[in-house]
Structure formats: structure tokens, C-alpha cells
Design brief:
heterodimer, A: ABC transporter involved in vitamin B12 uptake, BtuC, B: 314 residues, alpha/beta, Rossmann fold, 2 domains, 4-stranded parallel sheet, 12 helices, 39% helix
């Protein structure tokens, strides 16, 4: 069993590496994976500068492709981990930061800061922090609304998410009506975009994602016990109230990190934990590392599709994940419905 | 394997890549610095207010506007042009064979940044707009220079600017002198004619015309047209057929970009009540000639003058 799990992780890591090299290679100019590897080795001071690689290739690799692909990886990891935490917390496989409105809340926080204070306000962390505040608030509201008695039901969760997201989107329209010239930028950003961001976005968001992921790892065991029900978890020594607050904060932080640099990207947080639970099981301690390898892979590939299908024009990556994830979500919803009927 | 240890390892790996990349962002510009020509290195302020420095006369030029492409060719620099914006860069015909860098971005109107960088341009010549991608290109060491024309005089000035920028000042001055002489000859002829009231259709539907502060309005005035829209408040106002019936322009000019022939305009419902259309005074104007502030602009002026005063320019 343990060996099988390790093999799964190894396969996931290999797929991630392959997607990374592929995504870095494909674009207006082909950069061979071998050239990428040699240039990376040179940048890491392992080898001398490779011969026969033009300077323009170096600029494209280090200043355009790599930041974009790495950012897709970081955002994918954050979304997938956020989805795993929310699904554990709500004990509901349909939880996704976008579906339950947390991403919208984060977007509202970020847009409000951009419009009223300017995107450079409060330093590099201004937008992520505002996004975090919006996400946290939304998660708490949705959780309160969705909870009836001890459990969070699918229907109430989705309804609460939809209702809260609707309110947020109208507030967002209101905020955007104050924005004037920035409307087009904000709109493009909201669709979900990894375009045109240098290393600075990654540097700003990386420490927060890292903190969120570590915190999620430390909460994994308690989330497992939560799966037994709140009462059982409490009997087993879990401080249920504190755990819930912590899990909401972690899920919101991770979602906020993703939204603050890439806008609202749906369904990665839904699909990734779900697919991997089928492979590695429901234990969050095993699920989380797998999700952290698969989330980046999914978003890197989605972004690759987004920028190549209509090349040179680009699709917002959120459109690609929604086209992939939407049908998946409907399938899950239908299966949930059938299961509920079978139980009832 | 403990889960958080795996997580930490992944984060470390990603952070390492991040650090490696950030050192590459502070790169030297892509321009070469061979010392040829007298005025270089040259620093000029462009129409966006940005100060641009060129170390040497550019050898690899990318233009991102058909008018800029035409100017570069007219200065004899066609062989230094390595990229143009897209299919609208169709004049001179040789421009159609040059690599296209446009069509990118969410709305398909931005340059493809990777393609531009791969072409290693030492001058990127464009018109106003696109502040974001311009900033990105500058950050990558591409010298972006913006020219922006709002009048015929401006266009002459821009041609001379491009001449200085590319070390072809004399060719530019000679070209402008020729254009100016032709312009003066046309305007002198127009001065002997009574002004004609006219309407210029940019687009239909909705029926759209030009305001007084546009490039085309400047040409119309020089061509001896008293435009019925010369008091419009915006640059591209919508116009109603009712107003046109009342204003009764003598000549109805249609931009070829509007896609309509003279007979098609006359067939539109209600249009036959407009005086110019009832009298058959509808003229289609090649929009490339009047909308591109480049070396063919005097051809555009002549086309307008001829449409308005057919007898004087027979």
C-alpha cells in the first residue's frame, strides 16, 4: 500500500515535470526542453552558459515563459489545496473556492483595493491581504448559511454559495462603476489571467501559499477525524470549533492567494482533490501531497491550452478550466443526487 | 512519507526556480552599439511622452501600424523591416511578405510579445494606445517609439521624426518637401473653388461620421469641404438620417471601409431624401488613403478634393 502510494506520487511528479517542460517549450517561439534544462542549469550556477542559444531565447524563457508557467503552478497548487481543505471542512465533495463564493469574495476584496487605493497600495501584499479578508468573510458567511444542524448539505451549500456570490457580484459591479479607466483591466483580470506577470507576482504570493500549504498539512489529521462527524471528532479529542475556524482561514488564504494574482479560476479546486481521492484515498495526509503535484499540472496544461488554441489570441484560462470542470461538476452533482436518493 | 515534508520540498523547488529567474529580469537592452552615423546615440521624446534612446541607426525595425509601415518603406528602409502588425500592413505590396506580430491578447489587437522579442528589434514603431504591452516591451529591452498624427502637418512632422530616428533624415526631408509641394498645389486649386457642403460616412450601421478634431476632418477642410458635422462634440459621432435630410449636404462621401458602394447607399431606407443622394453625388473614398497618416496621405487629399470639385481636378 505504502509503496503504491509512493509510486503514485512519483508518477504525479513526473507528469508535472513533463507538463512544465512542455508548457515552457510551446509558444510563439519553440524552446526545446533541452535548451530549457541547460539554461536553467546555467542560471542555477551549475554549468557554463550553453552555446548556440540566442539571447532572445533567454529573454523569452526567463522573463516571459517561466514566470507564467511557474505562476500557473503556484496558483494551481493553491487552488487544489484550498479545494481539499474546504471539501474536508464541509465534508462535501462539491466544495470549491469558486463554487462556494470564496473566490468571488477574494476578487471583491482585491478589486476594491485596486479601485480605491491603487494596485500598488500597501506594498506587494496589499492586494493579497484584501483578497484574503474578502475570502475569509465569504467563507464564514457561506458556512453559517449552509449549516443546518451538524452537517452541511449539498443543496444548502450550493444555494448559499450562489446567493452570496450573487450579492458579491452586484457589489463588485457597484465598485467597478467607480473605477473609470480601469474597467477593462479589471474585467480581463476577473476572467482569470496569468498573462503579463513577471516574477514579482510569484515573489509576493509564494510565501503566503507556502504558509497556507504547511498549515493545511498540519491540519490534515484533524480533518480526517472530522470526516467521522463533529461529535465523533470531538470525542476523539479534536477541538471542533477551533479546527473549523482554522480550516476556513487556511482555505480562504489559499484561495485568496490564487485570486489575487490570477483572478477567479474555477473548478481546479473541485476536480483535483476529487480525482486524487479515487487514487490515493480520502486520508488528507496522503491526499494533500498528491493534490500539490496534480493541481499545478492541471492549471499549467489548462493555461497551455488557453494560449495555444486560438494563437496568437489568448483565451482566459478560467474559460478553459470551466469548460473542463463544468461537465465534471454536473457529473458529480448527478452522482451525489443518486447517492442521496439511494440512502433516503 | 510525511505530507508536510513533501509540501515543503515542493515549495523549496518552486522558490529556487523563482530566485533563478528574478536575476534575469535585470537584463541589458537588446540593442547593439556599433558606432555608425553621426547623430547616434540619439535620444528623442515620443508622442506618448516617453524618452527613447537608440545607440545606433536601427537595423531591425518592427512596425505596429500600417501607417508606420508605409513611412518606413517610403524612407527606403523596407529591407530593415523584420515585422509588421498584421494583414492590414498591405502597402507597399512587399509589406505583405513580412512576418506579422499582431493578433495577440484577450481582444486580439495586441502584439505577440514573444514573437517581437524573438525578432530582436532595435526599433518598435507604433501609434498611440496599448500602454500595458508597451510597458512590457520596454521592460524587455525593446525600444518602443510612438508617433501619433492628428493633422496633415503632424504627419509631415512624424515622417521627419522617423527619418531622424532611423538615420535617414535627408530622405525624410526630401519626401516631406515633395509631399508639401503637392499639398500646396492641391490647396491652391481648392482655394479657387467655392466650398462644398459634405458629409463623410465612416461606418454604417449605425451611421457614423467624423468630428472636427479628427485627422479626416483636417483633410476635409483642406479639400474644400464644409462638413455638416464640423460642430460635433465627439470624434466619431453617430448621425441621424433626419438631420442629414435637413442639412442637405451637396456631396455624400463614403469611406470604402464602410463597405458600401454608391448605389448601395442610395438604396438604404430613407436615404434618397438626402439632397446629395437624390442628385447622385455619392463618392466612395479609399479609406486607406485618408485614414493612414503616412506618405500616401496627399493622395488621399487629392482623392477628396477631386470628389468634391470634379471639374477642377478632372
Amino acid at each position: 500500500m505504502n509503496r503504491r502510494y509512493r509510486r503514485t506520487l512519483a508518477v504525479l511528479a513526473m507528469v508535472l515535470t513533463a507538463s512544465f517542460l512542455l508548457a515552457v517549450a510551446v509558444g510563439a517561439v519553440w524552446i526545446s526542453p533541452w535548451a530549457t534544462v541547460r539554461l536553467l542549469a546555467w542560471k542555477l550556477h551549475l554549468t557554463a552558459r550553453p552555446h548556440g542559444v540566442p539571447r532572445s531565447t533567454e529573454v523569452i524563457l526567463f522573463q516571459l515563459r517561466l514566470p507564467r508557467v511557474v505562476l500557473a503552478g503556484v496558483v494551481g497548487a493553491a487552488l487544489a489545496a484550498s479545494g481539499a481543505v474546504f471539501q474536508g471542512l464541509f465534508r462535501n465533495p462539491l466544495a470549491d473556492p469558486a463554487i462556494i463564493g470564496v473566490s468571488s469574495g477574494a476578487a471583491l476584496g482585491a478589486v476594491a483595493v485596486i479601485v480605491f487605493l491603487g494596485s500598488g497600495a500597501l506594498g506587494a501584499f496589499g492586494v493579497p491581504l484584501a483578497a484574503f479578508a474578502g475570502a475569509l468573510l465569504t467563507a464564514l458567511v457561506v458556512y453559517r448559511l449552509a449549516r443546518i444542524g451538524p452537517a452541511v448539505h449539498v443543496a444548502t451549500l450550493l444555494l448559499a454559495g450562489i446567493a452570496v456570490a450573487a450579492v458579491i457580484s452586484s457589489v463588485m459591479s457597484l465598485v467597478m462603476s467607480f473605477s473609470g479607466d480601469q474597467v477593462r483591466d479589471i474585467y480581463a483580470w476577473l476572467l482569470g489571467g496569468l498573462v503579463g506577470q513577471g516574477w514579482s507576482s510569484i515573489e509576493a504570493v509564494m510565501p503566503l501559499v507556502a504558509a497556507g500549504v504547511i498549515a493545511a498539512g498540519l491540519t490534515a489529521h484533524d480533518l480526517n477525524l472530522m470526516a467521522l462527524g463533529e461529535e465523533r471528532a470531538a470525542q476523539l479529542g479534536v477541538e471542533v470549533g477551533a479546527l473549523k475556524r482554522r480550516a476556513v482561514a487556511i482555505g480562504a488564504l489559499l484561495a485568496a492567494c490564487a485570486v489575487s494574482v490570477a483572478g477567479v479560476i474555477g473548478f481546479v479546486g473541485l476536480m483535483t482533490p476529487h480525482l486524487l481521492r479515487l487514487v490515493v484515498g480520502a486520508d488528507h495526509r496522503r491526499l494533500l501531497p498528491a493534490v500539490l503535484l496534480a493541481g499545478p499540472t492541471i492549471l499549467i496544461l489548462a493555461d497551455l491550452v488557453a494560449r495555444t488554441v486560438l494563437a496568437p489570441q489568448e483565451l482566459p484560462v478560467g474559460v478553459v478550466t470551466a469548460l473542463l470542470g463544468g461537465p465534471f461538476f454536473l457529473f458529480l452533482l448527478r452522482r451525489e443526487g443518486r447517492r442521496a436518493r439511494a440512502v433516503g | 512519507m510525511r505530507p508536510h515534508r513533501a509540501a515543503v520540498a515542493l515549495i523549496l523547488a518552486l522558490t529556487l526556480v523563482g530566485c533563478a529567474g528574478s536575476s534575469a529580469t535585470r537584463s541589458a537592452p537588446l540593442t547593439s552599439s556599433s558606432a555608425s552615423g553621426t547623430a547616434f546615440p540619439l535620444t528623442m521624446r515620443d508622442d506618448d511622452g516617453v524618452s527613447v534612446t537608440l545607440q545606433a541607426p536601427p537595423r531591425r525595425i518592427v512596425t505596429f501600424a500600417p501607417s508606420a509601415t508605409e513611412i518606413v518603406f517610403a524612407l527606403g528602409l523596407g529591407d530593415r523591416l523584420v515585422g509588421v502588425s498584421g494583414p492590414y500592413d498591405d502597402y507597399p505590396p512587399a509589406a505583405k511578405r513580412i512576418e506579422e506580430v499582431g493578433g495577440a491578447g484577450d481582444f486580439g489587437v495586441d502584439p505577440n510579445i514573444e514573437k517581437v522579442v524573438a525578432l530582436r528589434p532595435d526599433l518598435f514603431l507604433t501609434i498611440e494606445g496599448g500602454d500595458q504591452w508597451k510597458a512590457r516591451l520596454r521592460a524587455l529591452g525593446v525600444p518602443v517609439f510612438t508617433i501619433n498624427s492628428t493633422s496633415l502637418e503632424d504627419t509631415f512632422h512624424d515622417i521627419e521624426t522617423v527619418g531622424r530616428l532611423t538615420g535617414t533624415e535627408e530622405a525624410a526631408r526630401a519626401l516631406v518637401a515633395r509631399l508639401r509641394a503637392r499639398d500646396e498645389a492641391i490647396e491652391a486649386k481648392v482655394a479657387g473653388e467655392p466650398p462644398v457642403s459634405c458629409f463623410f460616412e465612416v461606418y454604417y450601421p449605425p451611421l457614423t461620421t467624423v468630428g472636427p478634431h479628427t485627422f479626416i476632418a483636417d483633410l476635409l477642410r483642406r479639400a474644400g469641404c464644409r462638413s455638416v458635422s464640423e460642430h460635433a462634440r465627439s470624434d466619431y459621432p453617430q448621425w441621424s438620417v433626419d438631420d442629414l435630410v435637413r442639412e442637405a449636404p451637396e456631396v455624400y462621401l463614403v469611406s470604402s471601409e464602410s463597405g458600401a458602394s454608391a448605389s448601395a447607399v442610395a438604396r438604404r431606407p430613407g436615404f434618397d431624401a438626402i439632397a446629395a443622394i437624390a442628385r447622385g453625388n455619392v463618392r466612395v473614398i479609399d479609406s486607406d488613403l485618408v485614414s493612414r497618416p503616412g506618405p500616401r496621405i496627399v493622395d488621399g487629399l487629392r482623392a477628396l478634393a477631386r470628389a468634391l470639385h470634379p471639374d477642377a481636378f478632372a
